[in-house]
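Service request form, structural biology core

Requester: graduate student, group of Dr. S.
Request type: structure prediction, single chain
Budget code: on file
Notes: please return the result as structure tokens.

Sequence provided:
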Amino acid sequence: MQSTLQPPAAITATISPKAGTIVFWTVTGLFCLQMSFTAYAQLRLPEVAGAFTHLGFPAYFRLELSWAKFLGVLLLLAPAPSRLKEWAYAGFAINLVSAVIAHLAVGDHRPEQWGPAAATGLLWGLSYFFWRRLQEAPGLSLAQAAGYRERR
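Core staff response, request fulfilled:
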């Protein structure tokens, strides 16, 4: 008996490049808003600075992490080379996994303590997945799919 279920790759292959672009920019926009907000909060809100102390991180790490997040957001939203975007995605992945691990390591076992990092990780995963799909689209660059003109 043959299954009528399609594998996930076949399902995403049926998404048109335009729909994939819309989903990519929507998810990436939400992800970048979340990362920008957390970077701002890490720089300006004393309760967030206290949370970093609770997790055992020094104050300077909070500052450098905030500026790295702003740089990563800029790289994801600007027309930058694919290699730089890949590094930004890698940095965000390390950041989000480390946040969940740090909370669990200090005994923050309730989902409301580590859940925001995990939920942001889900946005990260969707953004990265659709970015890669657009990168692999035959004859269609991400800039073209987004409506940008490529400069040569």
